[in-house]
Amino acid sequence: MQRASASLLAGVLFGAGLTISQMVNPTKVTDFLDFFGRWDPSLAFVMGSALTVTFACFRIILRRPHPLFAPEFHVPSAWRIDSRLIGGSALFGIGWGLAGYCPGPAVASLAYGRWQSAIFVMAMIVGMVLWERRGVASRAFADREGNILRRFTARKALANAGK
Question: Is this model's pTM higher than 0.85 or not?
Answer without folding.
Answer: no
